[in-house]
Design goal:
Order of helices and strands of chain A: EHEEEEHEHHEHEEHEEHEEHHEHHH
Largest interface: A-B, 23 and 23 residues
Distance between the termini of chain A: 45 Å
CATH superfamily of the largest domain in chain A: NAD(P)-binding Rossmann-like Domain
Shape of chain A: globular
Helix content of chain A: 25-40%
CATH class of the largest domain in chain A: Alpha Beta
Strand content of chain A: 15-25%
CATH topology of the largest domain in chain A: Rossmann fold
Radius of gyration of chain A: 19 Å
Oligomer: homodimer
């Protein structure tokens, strides 16, 4: 089969490509070709038994999505996006990539010959929801109330995905990822960065700043769970989704305090001592509008699974990024 | 004040302009100028004490919305749309007008000098919701689940309106109109046409075809109520809306059978006898996905009011279109 990954140079994209390369197949079908696209050329996996093309470009430019679907990929992972903080700071850029490029992709597929109807896995976000929320968790029928341009753009992506799927132009599934924790590497521009930072930095011997109170509660899943969501979304039968083809993914609802206690259990007091509390009113205000807890019944019924303890989430980071060794 | 009406040649647009012309003011401010725009030049009201410009064009064409906002209208009524049936039949046209032109309008406002922040009243639709629905009515927090391209486009319009309002580029309010009943004039391309047809045609001595069962329940308001919604939306304080600036309007939930019994009370058996039952499976299937009942608490708390009986809805038609005379 032929797979296209848009946003392949990002953290999720790289981990997805690693997994697909390791397995060599998707849903029991052997991978014959993979195209990796991003704004900078993604690194090609080495020693794989299929053809790999890497391409760099701007998805919003005329003709770009047409070129990418010209060889009719069977499965398209659309992970490319301007992240929340950047989409808020750069209004036009956010709309250009998160809305226009997504629509360009769907249009390029629609305008292909009849008979071409690829599976498109679209990564949406819990940012499609904004406060105030119900106290008992956000259910599958809660309305879209984004409080950011990023959340607005992701919601529009979900709507287009559903309409294009309904019309038979493509076979779409949208997955609303929890906040991914623990993100490896350097901090990105996301305002949610501290959720990972307070675990990752101390584990790497560095100080981390915690800008909010320990009582702040949020919704997490590991990068490994996120990749499993993508693979499952690419291979499940979409018929049971009906015309509601975007799903809130399962996750784990924990407070910052619970994150820190998990870190203490896994790595000890000395590591936890590297967290410095420095309240930042701007971040505090942003985080107030964020969801705390979901009831992801539909996704769970369809077989999507996340971690059930934050200790497990930390362990995934230690396994994948630190070679399995808990540092002192 | 300066008012711009987009879609001024449509049924709602004409009735809005009639009312504004009669009153000469909006929210206590004297109207000095009104621009009426549509795909065909709207008829200018006669004998009014303010300047009227009429213009025809295509809102999706480059520069069109910029020209329309160049004189900085204080209030913009955005009623222009490709209706549901047509947006379904003509995919590209629907997106071009219902999505691109709406976005062009918001962009033209955003790109105007800082300090310009008009009230924009955007007519959305209950088509932003699609079955399955809760049995006890669709509340203000039910999610967007459009089952048509039109509903998708209106939902996207609501999302853009909210984001542009939040960013301070405009002062938006979206109103989700019930099905307007009784629509005057000739049938349009809307699949909902029969809800009006079974009242209007018999009252005008003509036969009407009823393609669905008498048990079909739907959500109605008169054209007069719709105009009052628009005027109220243009003049109320939008601060209490917070970042949820689109509202389901109040309406009346009745079955087709209840519509017919109201017609019998108002106009008698001979008029009702002009309704011919001719089931049409296509219409039956479409209508299955339509909402039956809303709980429009937010709009009611903000002072929006619809009719409380279908007899009243019929009477509005008789008053406005038949000179107050109930035909035999």
């Amino acid at each position: 089969m032929n797979i296209l990954v848009l946003g392949a140079a990002g953290m999720i994209g790289r981990k997805l490509v690693e997994r697909l390369s390791r397995e060599g197949s998707l849903g029991g079908r052997r991978i014959e070709r993979m195209t990796l696209f991003d704004v900078v050329a993604p690194k090609a996996p080495e020693g794989v038994g299929f053809e790999v093309r890497t391409m760099a470009g701007d998805l919003s430019q005329p003709g770009q999505t047409e070129r990418l679907v010209a060889d009719r990929p069977d499965t398209i992972f659309h992970l490319a996006a301007i992240v929340s903080g950047e989409a808020e700071a750069e209004f036009e850029k956010g709309y250009r990539i998160n809305l226009d490029a997504t629509r360009n992709l769907f249009e390029a597929v629609r305008r292909s010959n009849p008979g071409y109807r690829p599976r498109i896995v679209f990564t949406s976000s819990i940012a499609v929801f904004g406060a105030p929320f119900p106290d008992d968790g956000i259910g599958d029928e809660f309305h879209h109330t984004p409080l950011t341009s990023y959340g607005t753009q992701k919601t529009i992506g979900e709507l287009l995905l559903a309409d294009y799927s309904r019309r038979g132009f493509l076979d779409g599934i949208g997955i609303r990822l929890p906040t991914i924790c623990v993100r490896p590497g350097l901090p990105n521009k996301a305002a949610s960065g501290f959720f990972s930072g307070i675990i990752r930095e101390p584990l790497n011997g560095k100080e981390a700043v915690l800008p909010v109170a320990d009582t702040v509660r949020h919704w997490h899943a590991s990068p490994r769970a996120a990749i499993q969501f993508l693979v499952h979304a690419a291979t499940l039968d979409t018929a049971p989704l009906g015309q509601r083809c975007s799903l809130t993914m399962p996750g784990l609802s924990v407070t910052v305090g619970e994150q820190i206690e998990a870190l203490r259990r896994v790595a000890g007091d000395a590591v936890v001592a590297r967290i410095r509390r420095e309240p930042d009113q701007t971040v505090i205000d942003i985080v107030k509008g964020w969801p705390e807890r979901f009831v992801a019944k539909r996704a769970e019924a369809l077989g999507f699974r996340a971690e059930s303890s934050f200790d497990d989430i930390i362990q995934v980071y230690i396994d994948e990024e630190l070679g399995g060794r808990v540092p002192g």
